[in-house]
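PT: before anyone asks, these are the final sequences, not the draft ones from last week. 696 residues across everything. Please model them as a single complex and drop the result in this thread when it's through.
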Amino acid sequence: MAQYQQTAVQDGLAFYVRSLKPSRGFVTVVISTLALIMVCAVFAPSAISAGGLAGSLPFAAIIAIVGLGQMLVVQQGGFDLSLAGGVSLAVVITTHMAGGSDAQLFSAIAFAFGCAVVAGVINGILVGFLRLNAIVATIGMNALLYGAVFAVSGGVPRITTPLMAQIAGGKTLGIPHSVLFAVAIMLLVSFLLKKTIIGRRFEAIGANPAAAHAAGLRVQLYQTMAYVLAQLHYCIAGILISGITREPTAFQGDSLLLPSVAVVVLAGTSLLGGRGFPISTVIAALFLNLLSQFALAVGVPFSAQTIIQALALVFGIGVYSLQWKQAATKRALKSKTEETDNV
Amino acid sequence: MFKAKTMTIACAAATLTMALSASTVLAETPSWCGPNQASLALLDGFGGNSWRLVTTASGAEEAAKCPSITQYEYADGQGDTQKAISDINSMAARGINAMVVFGDAGPAVLPALTNAHRAGTIVVPYRVNVGGTEGENYAKFIGSSFVEDGVSWGNWIKEVLPEGGNVLFLSGPAGNSQGIDELAGMKQVLDDKYVFINPEPFAVTNWDPSLTQQVLSAEIAKNDKIDVIVSDFGPSLVGALPVFAEFKRSIPALATSDGNSLSCFWEQNKDANPDFKLFTVATGNDNVRLAVQWAVALATGGTPPADNIFKAPVYENSVSGTPNPVTCRPDLPGSIYLSAEMADDAQAKAVGQ
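LR: through. Structure below.
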């Protein structure tokens, strides 16, 4: 009896501790980032110097923002490959429609947001209501968005407006504005996901759409919402790029697709859908950016830079994608069974 | 008296007009334009940036100088090797007499070029080496002398830094032959006093402004002393150079290729950055003109030009002002190239602004 009581207490305690315990993704990504910072401090101090960070943090912020957008889609078990087109379209709309004039900047930004909502709604309807495969639907949308990119820009880069350069590229108290944007968006997404009814339902639907449907939740609507919100993130990222990079190309989104998926996975969000980890996603973006700065600062050849990044990703994913504990338990169980069989 | 003066002016004006129209007629039929009628196609591997738009418009302008060219076609491979190959095949099938090809995909387009050549089309690839040999796979290859660019940069670096110094060289995608040739050119004139601080052979930027910005900020953080930056795509540095201000350092000397946005950036920032000297070579839009001249000459029976390799001339030098001082045209788009032969306004139109 006493033994049972003790087990119950242990279980209760374990539950309490578990609820306080940060997610495995968070722990992994924070430890990896701290380790990387230490490695940088020893081998490439310039990568974490104030000037070095000032140059690279805006790009980390961009990856963080597109990563948060991608995370919302991945939470619903999808993939959004229209990210590249979405970001590029926002870039060319803010540079071309404004045409270097501050007066037209805000109407251009409003138009960019309008386009993002339209693209997101179409994606959402295709995937949420018509049940198309997310990869296929968003690849198609990406091609459409690139069509729009060419229609707006003809593929020609154009210089951003001075006001946009100030908004996205400026600094307040020594912190680049793009970083402030990323942090604000992260806080907003975290609050909405974790502390509001809509957010809790959103995560529940991602974890098990069938159960959520049985519980009376409007699964298709929430899935559509994920794509719309994701496009809004890409749009913000594109607008910021147009200010950070003085003369951005018309294809600026291309190089962001893979990092966006990478940070979502590194942060521990399951590709099958479910819980999202906004804070971990942002830290993962910092990690990824720091890693490329490290490779640049060490001065290794370009081939090695790519390999280092790939290895870090494999390591990062391997740490918690494999069910180490489960595998160990299984092994233990198996050996026990064998023992019993022998007897 | 008044009448006589008017008459004199009228006569002078008439003579001038006649002289001008005579020279216009002469200019209309250059020696490379022969008497035989022919059709010409310009095939681009990737046509979606301002440099290509200006280049394409330059090619059309050059072809228009020859009245023997009865038909002019253009196709854009859109960065897709398969499409570029099918463009070449379809132009050959349509019986186009001569084609000028920007073979972005390199040797991948060589079989299609060879087929067109064997079918009797005059094939002139230019700028990007597609492999193969002249006469067998195509009629003529019009290269661009990137080694020459490197030599021009090297000579200028020796002028502004006679005591030697640290050189940071940025080029495009890893292993691109343009960057390697330029480095070879610089090494011909720069001795050991000049230290290349980038990873061998150059810092990789993919000619992408945002990657350039990241690479440059990493290099600035790492190296306390950068005396000169060399880049083969000047305008991509415009977004990255303000990074020096983050480190409270002056922008160093810059040897690169020209672009209106870069020249305007220099105008705006030269006072705040005492070390910011600028030297540019022409970015080479006119390479296509030489290729068009060759293709037209071979197709129409004209006299081919003397050159078969395009040497980008030195364009701007902020120190000596020769051959040109740095020229900014704030009234025109940043994405045009004042070094190109094409008129500035026509370029602005070509890039759609």
